[in-house]
Amino acid sequence: MAGLVYCMKNGCGAEWLVFEQSIFEFLKNRYFEKSLVRMGGNAGIMANALSQLGASRVIPNVAVPSKTQLSLFSEKAIYFPAPIQIKENSGSEPDKNTDIVSGSPEPIHFVFDFSVGDTFSLYGTEVRVPRENRFIATCDHLNLRLFVNPAFERYALQHVCEIDGVLISGFHLLLESYPDGSGYKTILENSLSQLRRWKAANNKLRIHLEFGHFASKEIANSVFLDFAVISDSIGMNEDELSIFHHLHGIPSESLLRMEAEAVGNAACRLASRYGLKKLLIHTREFALTVFKPNFNSNFNSNSKLESKSESKSESNSESKPNPENSIDLRVSEDLEDLESSIQKMAGEKLEALRFGVRCAGAYAASGRLEGREFVEEEASKLHESLFGREQLELFLKAFHGVTFGQGAYAFREGYVICMIPTLLSGSPITTVGLGDTLTAGTFLRGLELDVQT
């Protein structure tokens, strides 16, 4: 109740973990039958989004494959590696041959959505909700250990060469210590080892790490630093970005206010200081991505130096007098190639962001995704965030950016920063999973554009 009141009073989101069985039973008995049951968890939401948006095959890791859980998955492209054990929801003991759940209760994330303008009385004082958001009470014991279904693990190792991308999440559920005396660092190392094996077998595999609401800054820090090297991209919202104030030095207040200059600077510093390939920040008002441009195939970054070196040798040759004009021309051509190359790469990232933003907007407005035509139709009914548009103008000034379509991009510290406003619904069906939906759409479209180029 304290968590829910805090979030409603401040219009913020949070996720708290439930450990006591009595609290779980209270929540389930009081709210489950009255609730709209939807897919929960970052990975589950992203898997469904990928399936509905056109991925050819999506393989989720299902820790507790109950009938309820399985019934919530998309039927388009979701594939469950065999064998998969189904745990009945009736409360009866699972089959003796089940080696997956070991009698663990079905994981339930109790999500309390609230809307702007909602009011309630707190000790006689009326409180009005400043903006829509959600509070989540999570009862999910197996995922506290990042449990991997053995069938999923076997399938992944056997078919990793056929897989284009991997989305990983759930690390925010880790605990500093567990009843058996183990700690989260062992779990992190196991996850890293698994990803290293996949990468070794398929060096084209794209790995995206999606953050969540961390209760422990120490665990958040460890996850970020440990996965910075192996991840091709990392995603988080403004709350999660503010956790890393000690790494980027940007005040949390400006990040939580979703100021584009602050978010851009924080993201750029994180990326450049820790060698990230790509960092995606999704907020209610805008989405922003920072990426390291790959000039190997698009531009020779040494060409400027080469032209200077050539000019020196040419100036010592009597057969080629006055080489300065040709040097200037060569450097000018190199800069034009550089700008063209950056614009092309930024355009692709903005196209992916645009698709992700439209997916999130359609999902917020309707509570579902039913293919790309559906997304485009629903998104066309929504309005662009006015605050996001204002922040885009400030972004252009702060970073000397360039307008591109509905967004903009800029070059800073060897990285390209791209930004686009979000699409908002006046009466959203859901505020849960919007970041995950945006991430899934952006990730999928990015993979498609990579294949095309």
How would you describe the overall organization of this protein?
With 453 residues, this protein is α/β, with parallel strands linked by helices. Among the domains are: 1-37 and 107-144, Adenosine kinase, small domain (2-Layer Sandwich); 232-453, UDP-N-acetylmuramoyl-L-alanine:D-glutamate ligase (3-Layer(aba) Sandwich), CATH 3.40.1190.20. The chain has 16 helices and 15 strands. It has helices at 2-10, 21-31, 42-52, 67-71, 150-159, 184-201, 217-227, 238-243, 245-248, 252-256, 260-273, 303-315, 324-366, 372-379, 386-399, 434-452, and strands at 14-17, 108-114, 119-122, 125-128, 133-139, 165-168, 206-210, 233-236, 278-282, 286-291, 383-384, 402-404, 407-412, 415-421, 423-424. It has an 8-stranded mixed β-sheet, with helices on both faces. The protein has a 3-stranded mixed β-sheet with strand order 1-5-2. Strands 3-4 form a two-stranded antiparallel sheet. The longest helix has 43 residues, at 324-366. It is globular, with a radius of gyration of 24 Å. Residues 90-102 and 297-321 have low confidence and may be disordered.
Keywords:
453 residues; Adenosine kinase, small domain; alpha/beta; 15 strands; three-stranded mixed sheet; UDP-N-acetylmuramoyl-L-alanine:D-glutamate ligase
> Would you tell me the structural class of the helices and strands?
alpha/beta
Question: From the 3D coordinates, which CATH architecture of the domain at 232-453 would you assign?
Answer: 3-Layer(aba) Sandwich
The strands making up the biggest β-sheet line up spatially as 6-7-8-9-10-14-13-12
CA distance, first residue to last residue:
51 Å
Helix content: 40-55%
Mean pLDDT across the residues is 87
What CATH calls the topology of the domain at 232-453 is UDP-N-acetylmuramoyl-L-alanine:D-glutamate ligase
Give the CATH H-level superfamily of the domain at 232-453: Ribokinase
Q: State which percent range the strand residues make up.
A: 15-25%
